[in-house]
Amino acid sequence: MNKNRNIFISFLKERFSGEKLNETVAKFDIYFSRLVEINSQVNLFSRQADINDLWTLHFMDSLLILETAADLDNKIICDIGTGGGLPGIPLAIIYPNSKIYLLDSKQKKLSAINKICAEIGLTNCRTVHARIEDMRQDYEGFFDVLTCRALKITPDFVTPMKRIMKRGGKMFLYKGMIANDLNAFETKDIYDVTRAEIGKRIIAKIENCN
Fold it and tell me: CA geometry: angle at 128 spanning 121 and 185, to 5°?
């Protein structure tokens, strides 16, 4: 039995039960197997990593946003620098009524993500090949929520990020021990979502008041 998979399932059981739980686990099983398979051709996560850590350090970590009481149901969400689809794909699995845009500058990764989403049966995901600085006319004031898990926020990202958010929209930034890039934002709410299986983890929520 995979210990980390069991830890992740226990995490899900705190929130779901019955058929919803079974369907969710089945989708994450597909996600895990396809990530591992495709990663040998396209670098979606570190090839030096223990693949069993995907369950905790990636899947569970992506869903720690649930501990911030964020309202993510029936929302338009953009996952910036999605890489291997994290946290965008886990959120798409949990929130089938939300539309998830997976943004990355590397087309190879997005092509792999499209295959993975098709295999899982996700119809609420769309990939966007662009840099955040290039998201302009079509997406101005478009998103309810932005997520960013693996990208360091430099000052030149702040205006483009706020530009594509609706007024009153929220961004959620995942940070570990080093979080000095949060200084780019004057006002933020910090949630400590640290867990023994993952380590130090905070999520910063920034509201777009413009």
Answer: 115
